[in-house]
Design brief:
four-stranded mixed beta sheet; alpha/beta; 16 strands
Length: about 350
Amino acid sequence: MTTVTTPPNVTTDVVCLGESMVTFLPARPGRLADVPSFDRAIGGAESNVACALAAIGHPARWISRVGTDGFGDHLLETVAAHGVDVGHVRRDPRRPTGIYFRTAGERATGAEGEPDGQQLAEVVYYRAGSAASALGPDLADERALWDARVVHVTGITAALSDTCLGLLEKITERRAGRPLVSFDLNYRVGLWKDRAEQAPGILLGLARGCDLVFVGEDEAAAAWDVHGPAAVREALPEPGVLVVKQGGEGATVYERQPDGTDAVTFAPALSVEVAAPVGAGDAFAAGFLSATLRGLPVFDRIRHGHLIAAASLTVPGDLATPPARELADHLVALTPEEWGTLRLGPGWTESGAAEVRVEVPS
């Protein structure tokens, strides 16, 4: 089983690096063109993971750049309020903090064969030339970056600029003594429109340099025309742990064994009353990483991922209150029959273990 070692003098469990933005969510359903007002929140794949891990109880650090504007102030204050170390986020007086507007629904991957009735989110970014796009290989806080048991990054950062790509290439370069490097593909077609032909190869190269990789089955189809967990593993043989997320079906994990073979583990997802799907992938990564840091078996890691994702799915924004560790551990230990009858809706993370509805057939 893959374990995370703790090098000497490490002060945090996880460092997450990448852009976070202020996000505006419609105050009522409808097209962006029709919505008269918006509620302000924050959103960013890497800061989402850091906030969730901190809420679960892990020391977490977020590294990025934000403007010296009010939106930058809001981001730092909000992420810090979740218990995340933001002391290494740089302020940029020349570049703004990114913002975006979105509706509920799924973010399109661009994959052919997406369900005709699928509700796709409208997402409009205002992030070109943002402070975070100036991140690069000459990162001033390099010591703070590697001062962790796990470093977590995503493919979104690679799409922001050439310097951001250079930083990701540096982080994912295999070298002795580095922390476990975790990578979430997070393929966003719209971010790669100027380098659409290069994107698949760039993302594949970055993923191959990592120790733990998260890939959505739909993302793999869209980026690499690869279909099914086994085919994804064939395309990505290098990572010690490969997590293939299969939407509402569940997730399959490939874990490299000492003899070079893979142990393959599947765990089904939960039945959830979905408020909004955005942020669920980040939440899953946080749950899986938390269980990895605790040295739990792979099956339990997947279930913890599903539970934190379920917390995110039942709120309209990117960030949700995760279940208390005692409750999460209780649910992870359920039998397959009990797990299959769980029904989770808004507010479930605030319930006691006995109050979460488990319907066991007689």
